[in-house]
Amino acid sequence: MMFSPFKGLTVERDCAHAESINQAVWQDRVLAAELRAAVRQSHQIAHCFDFLPAERRDDPALSCEVSAIIYHDGELLFLNDKPLPALPVALRASIDSKGGLSPLIAGTFSPLDQATKFEAAAQAVDDPIDFAITAFDRFDPAHAGWDRFNAFFYWPRGRVDQAQLIQSTERESVVSSIKLRSVFESVIKTPYFKIEGLAALPGRRLMFGIRETGLSFREPKFRFLVSINYDKSIELLDEVSVLADWSARDLIGGETIADPSKDWGLSSIEYCADKDQLFFLLSAESKKGMEGFLLTQHRAQFLAGARPVLVRDQKGAAIHFSHKPEGMAVIGSDCRLLIAHDD
Fold it and tell me: What is the DSSP string of 113-164?
């Protein structure tokens, strides 16, 4: 697999299919809409559970659904959407200078294993700290059974075994970050929401991607981004705001080639410090299939109100995925990205 700015890693139940899109140049731009990438694609298959004994690989409880990625010093940490029986929630691999992935292996058992449904991860710009967050998409005020879905962790870069919960709360022996729900509810204004994106920006600012909001998961309204500041001691500050509230469908315009009834939503955010550039994944799925797009915007323009625009190839065609893109991480200079498809 070529070392490239965009790589799609399609992760199925027991194997991963990698789609590589190689960028040759970012053009200078007056408007973000002029951003273009020259690309080429390649593919790689990686088996998620080959490190297990053969008799365990067919366990129907095993599900390789990568939804968040952390990259550090050539090592990749893939966080799973679903818990893995008797295994850490994270899988590990290394990536070489040519972009080749090593076989996936089990990660380290860590405090992250006490949480369920990881959806996003990010690396701080101002401090050597990593973050990971679950979906926050279910909660029962009467019982702690769903508290595991409400967790926000941080740890010293490269030391996930030292992860700690932000705004830790214990209820019925379940430790979580449920106190954060009130922070999100104060600006989202609905009892149901689902987090699927996280980016750490300069100035100790966190940006959370809200894929859905509504009265319940049965009637979601697709939303976008919430910003929260934090201080050096990783205490969240009372500076919470909605940065954008756009329709994901409006952002892709008429580019979609699939079922127009699909519900489009945000599935990942990533910040590239080298170019001061934000990247966004939008995805949709239905019985007729899955698809996704990659969008971008310069941070200053985005914070000034400019919408993300589709990343296009040299011929002007939007970069389009025929899978459901979920996780994304910067893996090198010039905003090279690794994109994981969670099918």
Answer: GGS--EEEEEE-SSSSEEEEEE------TT-STTGGGS-EEEEETT-GGG-E
Cα–Cα dist 39/53, whole Å: 39
Which CATH number is correct for 6-27+36-342, 2.60.40, 2.60.120, 1.10.390, 2.120.10?
Answer: 2.120.10
For residues 11 and 342, the answer to whether their CB atoms sit within 8 Å is yes
> Which are the contacts of 134, defined by CB distance < 8 A and separation ≥ 6?
115, 116, 117, 118, 119, 148, 149, 150, 151, 152, 195
Nearest to 228 by CA among 174, 179, 158, 155: 179
Residue by residue, pLDDT tens for the chain (343 residues) are 223 344 444 444 455 555 554 544 343 333 334 444 545 555 566 678 888 888 888 888 888 888 999 999 999 999 988 888 889 999 999 988 777 888 899 999 999 999 999 999 999 999 999 999 999 999 999 999 999 999 999 999 999 999 999 999 999 999 999 999 999 998 888 889 999 999 999 998 999 999 988 887 666 666 767 777 777 777 776 678 888 888 888 888 777 665 556 788 899 999 999 999 999 999 988 777 788 999 999 999 999 999 999 998 878 888 888 888 899 999 877 788 888 886 6
Burial of 190 (0-12, 13-18, 19+ CB in 10 A): middle
Of the candidates 103, 121, 126, the residue with the CA atom closest to the CA atom of residue 48: 103
How do the domains of the chain map onto residue ranges? 6-27+36-342
Could you tell me the pTM of the whole model?
0.88
> What phi and psi, each to the nearest 5 degrees, are found at residue 243?
-80, -30
